[in-house]
Amino acid sequence: MPKLDGFLAVKRKDPGYRAVEERVLDFNRVELMLSEEEVVEQATRCMDCGVPFCHIHGCPLGNRIPDYADLIANNQWKEALLLLESTNNFPEITGRICPAPCETSCTLAPDFLATACEQIELQIAERGWKEGWVLPEIALVKTGKRVAVVGSGPTGLAAAQQLIRKGHEVIVFEKSDRLGGLLTYGIPNFKLEKEVIERRMNQMIMEGVVFEKEVEIGRDLSAHYLLHKFDAVVIASGTPLPRDITIPGRSLEGIHFALDYLTQQTKIVLGDTIDSNEYIDAKGKHVIVIGGGDTGSDCVGSVIRRGCASVTQVELLPAPPTVRSSNNPWPQWPLIMRSSSSHEEGVTRMWSIGSKEFQGVNGKVKRFSGVRLNWKENSFTEIPGSEFILDADLVLLSMGFIPHRESPLVKEFNLALDSRGSIQTDEKYRTSVDKVFAAGDAVIGASLVVKAINHGRQCASSVDKYIRNAHSL
Ligand SMILES: Cc1cc2nc3c(=O)[nH]c(=O)nc-3n(C[C@H](O)[C@H](O)[C@H](O)COP(=O)(O)OP(=O)(O)OC[C@H]3O[C@@H](n4cnc5c(N)ncnc54)[C@H](O)[C@@H]3O)c2cc1C
User: Fold this and answer.
1) CA–CA dist 80, 66 (Å, integer)
2) Could you tell me the fold of the domain covering 244-325+333-399?
3) Within 6 Å (CB) of ligand 1, which residues are found?
4) What is the pLDDT of residue 405?
5) What SS3 state is found at 314?
6) CATH 1.10.1060.10 residue window(s) in the chain
7) Integer Cα distance of 337 and 351 in angstroms
8) Rg for the chain (alpha carbons), in Å?
9) Cα-to-centroid distance, 238 and ligand 1 (Å)
10) Long-range CB contact pairs, 377-386, < 8 A, 24+
11) pTM for this predicted structure
């Protein structure tokens, strides 16, 4: 425990964000960082509780927060990094974009402000990169066994890194032109700079992971090939299918899936040229984002940076409460109203809204027609006379994702699906097909990076055991 009365003597400090008027002019990271001294001071607020809920309940990875807070408070940064890396392959990523369930479950959270766990994690990770402590970890003994990983999102990357370090040969197949899954083509640069991913990819390449980009399993390469040529296959293909809306006017021009827009924005930020016929232009437009979640919020921040005339985010569900309700006590994740940095930049948020129709002129969307809803328990009715119309020159659909179901990947491998249509696995991440494992969003549905990394690590451990048992290594 760094300091007995640290949590009383030191106030929680957050790094804050760049000023709105400055940050909306670029796609650079919006969140600032505390200085090293400030983070050390924040670390002294950790109470090293007898039951550290941050570690055992909040963090899906089981990050040992009290222990590394103690280490940095004692100026043992390298030891802190080793401890952090023992549970988390990519702390520089979770340190940037995790919603930090560790903090909401911190013992200080209900009455005092939580320990700044995420900033501590980020500072340890970045110090490690700065000092050159993050080096490739090359397995001394090679097993000669081969594992194929399908998908290079956080699940696939974590699984690949764990498996290469166990001495197996690992090839990651990625259908996209860049690695990282939603870390790259999903989460905007202003939340997660893409150099951060590239830096980690270079480490993995040096460790021996082979990345095959623009190869779609199920189309470019068959399941038969993978089953024949590899000792195990890990499917980490995410939830690639966006949920659509079926209301009149859906086929009008100017209505796009959020992820298509966000992907294009990242490509532009990374210097790609977009064909003018395909460019989704928000400049000067009234934008409607349908879906009140995080993907929608990322669209809000992006269209504001592209100079939209206005942006409105509409959500079907009612606004969450501002404080925890009695059936959602600490240390559970609080189901409360949240506002992102993008929301601060200028958006109108509407809750309990039903989408009725898109109206157009000359085939292009011009208006969005909605209605206010009255929610009672888990069902809603439309409020008579509450219909409204909003200008809408661009509509971004951000209503979540649906599982694989009929994807070529699932069909090719002949994988059993669960009742939601996600890939079915047992507790060892085994699918219904021998030597095929699956993990991450492909199994649990749209989730969080920290859960994806955890799944990737656990799955890798199962694959390693499977290979060793099968071949008596
Ligand atoms: C816009 C957006 C913002 C988000 N922001 C956050 C955030 O701030 N914090 C957070 O914690 N979480 C966030 N998430 C959620 C998080 O990104 C996901 O939970 C996480 O990326 C899931 O990881 P994954 O590896 O399972 O899947 P993905 O990241 O989706 O990766 C799957 C990869 O598999 C590839 N693939 C699919 N099929 C094939 C195939 N047949 N052959 C080869 N490759 C294939 C895909 O191209 C993709 O690269 C966000 C999600 C979205 C959509």
Assistant:
1) 10
2) FAD/NAD(P)-binding domain (3.50.50)
3) 97-98, 150-156, 173-176, 181-183, 186-187, 191, 216-218, 236-238, 240, 262, 294-295, 298, 409, 440-442, 446-450, 452
4) 75
5) strand
6) 6-131
7) 11
8) 23
9) 5
10) 380/316, 380/352, 380/354, 382/354
11) 0.97
- The DSSP call for residue 217 is B
Q: Ligand 1 center to residue 422 CA distance, Å? A: 14
pLDDT per residue as tens digits for the range 189-235:
999 999 999 999 999 999 999 999 999 999 999 999 999 999 999 99
Task: Classify each residue of 45-73 as buried b or exposed e, where b means 16 or more C-beta atoms within 10 Å of its C-beta.
Answer: bbbeeeebbbbebbbbbbbbbbbbbbbbb
Indicate if the pLDDT at residue 4 is higher than 70.
Answer: yes
Q: Domain 146-240+402-471 maps to which CATH number in 3.50.50.60, 3.90.1300.10, 3.30.70.270, 2.60.40.1180? A: 3.50.50.60
**Within the chain, which residue ranges are assigned CATH 3.50.50.60?**
146-240+402-471, 244-325+333-399
Q: Is the peptide bond before 320 cis (omega within 30 degrees of 0)?
A: no
The model's pLDDT over 246-285, given as tens digits with 9 standing for 90+, comes to 999 999 999 999 999 999 999 999 999 999 999 999 999 9
Class of domain 6-131: mainly alpha
Q: How far is CA 236 from CA 14, 73, 443, 455, in A?
A: 34, 38, 8, 9
Query: Can you tell me which residue has the tokens 């959020």?
Result: 258
Q: Is the pLDDT of residue 404 over 80?
A: no
What whole-number distance in Å separates Cα of residue 468 and Cα of residue 235? 19
Q: Among 149, 281, 267, 134, which residue's Cα sits nearest to residue 206?
A: 134
Mean per-residue pLDDT, 338-355: 97
